[in-house]
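Hi team,

Below is the intake form for Adenylyltransferase/cytidyltransferase family protein from Klenkia terrae. Please confirm the fields before the structure is written into the shared record.

FORM ID: S-0412
PROTEIN: Adenylyltransferase/cytidyltransferase family protein
ORGANISM: Klenkia terrae
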Amino acid sequence: MTGNPEPGRLYSDLFQDASHFEERFVDDLERLAAMSSALKTLGLRVVLTSGSFDMIHEGHSRYLEHARSLGGFLIVGVDSDAKVRRRKGPSRPAVPEMERLRMVTHQRGVGIVTLKHVEHEQWALIKAVRPGVLVATADTYTAEEVARLEAEYCDRVVVLDRMSTVSTSARLRLIHLDNAANSSDE
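The structure came back. Fields below:
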């Protein structure tokens, strides 16, 4: 979004079915904090989740759909390429960050996407959004961290099970093994 929208037209593109990537991608935490506050003023429960979303698959779609069902507006943080490499190794991500951001934006129910940069302090996105509901998987936070998050930055943390039978990492290993087998057959 360029400039400030008219008050009567507050972020209307965020509520339409079309991707509207230019309006939905917000890479500034201060602006995101202001937008989150405005959404809450409208009476919407803001839901926040995040992840790598490398090679989007059914599990990602189901996870995002479930997250969206927990409130009125879903904000998704997508890990930057550098953040994914730091966590998953030098061969990741398989899909560059701008493409991953665009793909997440196309998922039904996603209102805003943002990029989680390596240089952001811990929980910077959570502190900016201060969601009504923070959605994570079981391995994301310790019980102590969940208690702190709920006491300081959000109303509630909801832990979802992984919703896929195959992870992106496992799929990439299969592709690599298949490619290796095919090249040795030649």
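SUMMARY LINE: Strands lie at 46-51, 73-79, 110-116, 133-137, 156-160.

Thanks, M.
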